[in-house]
């Protein structure tokens, strides 16, 4: 079975789209705004697992302390430095083994995002 998407409902619709486009590097692969719905799907490529973002004004914080979405970064140290310089609160770098290191930030909707 293939995972299709992870849905984030947020009151920060435009900021959320910008985070996943400008920071993560995803592109909009399906845009329902063209038919009057504030809903977009972002992914690396058409057919990949997507982040679905839905404009939901009453959704104050989509975060859950036990949920995170993870992305591979070409240079995890540079990514952390970039996000900190942009004002995001990043966790300290975590390295459970010599070949693995990662950190977390919260996206505009409050979802924990892991960069490895």
Keywords:
4-stranded mixed β-sheet, 116 residues, alpha/beta, single chain, 2 helices, 2,3-Dihydroxybiphenyl 1,2-Dioxygenase, domain 1
**Spans where pLDDT lies below 50 across 5 or more residues:** none
Q: What name is given to the CATH topology?
A: 2,3-Dihydroxybiphenyl 1,2-Dioxygenase, domain 1
Widest sheet, order of strands: 1-4-3-2
Work out the helix count: 2
* General form: globular
Our measurement of the CA-to-CA distance between the termini, rounded to an integer number of angstroms, reads 25 Å
Q: Count structural domains.
A: 1
Tell me the radius of gyration. 14 Å
Q: Mean pLDDT, nearest integer?
A: 94
Helix content: 10-25%
Give the topology string: H per helix, E per strand. EHEEEEHEEE
CATH superfamily: 2,3-Dihydroxybiphenyl 1,2-Dioxygenase, domain 1
Quote the beta fraction. Answer: 35-45%
How many strands, which pairing sense, and closed or not: the largest β-sheet? Answer: 4 strands, mixed
Which second-level CATH architecture applies?
Roll
CATH top-level class:
Alpha Beta
SS-derived structural category: alpha/beta
Provide an overview of this structure.
- There is one protein chain.
- The chain is an alpha/beta fold and 116 residues long.
- The protein has a single domain (5-115), classed as 2,3-Dihydroxybiphenyl 1,2-Dioxygenase, domain 1, CATH 3.10.180.
- Helix content is 18%, strand content 35%.
- The chain contains 2 helices and 8 strands.
- The chain has helices at residues 13-23, 76-85, and strands at 5-10, 27-31, 39-43, 50-55, 68-71, 94-97, 100-106, 112-115.
- The strands form 2 sheets. The chain has a 4-stranded mixed sheet, with helices on one face.
- A hairpin with a 2-residue loop joins β6 and β7 (100-106).
- The longest helix has 11 residues, at 13-23.
- It is globular.
């Amino acid at each position: 079975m293939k995972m299709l998407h992870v849905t984030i409902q947020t009151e920060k619709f435009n900021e959320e789209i910008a985070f996943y486009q400008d920071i993560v590097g995803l592109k909009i692969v399906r845009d329902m705004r063209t038919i009057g719905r504030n809903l977009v799907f972002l992914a690396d490529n058409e057919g990949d697992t997507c982040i679905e973002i839905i404009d939901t004004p009453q959704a104050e914080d989509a975060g859950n302390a036990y949920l995170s979405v993870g992305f591979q970064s070409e240079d995890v140290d540079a990514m952390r430095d970039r996000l900190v310089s942009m004002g995001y609160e990043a966790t300290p770098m975590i390295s459970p083994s010599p070949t693995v290191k990662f950190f977390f930030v919260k996206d505009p909707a409050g979802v924990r995002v892991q960069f490895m």
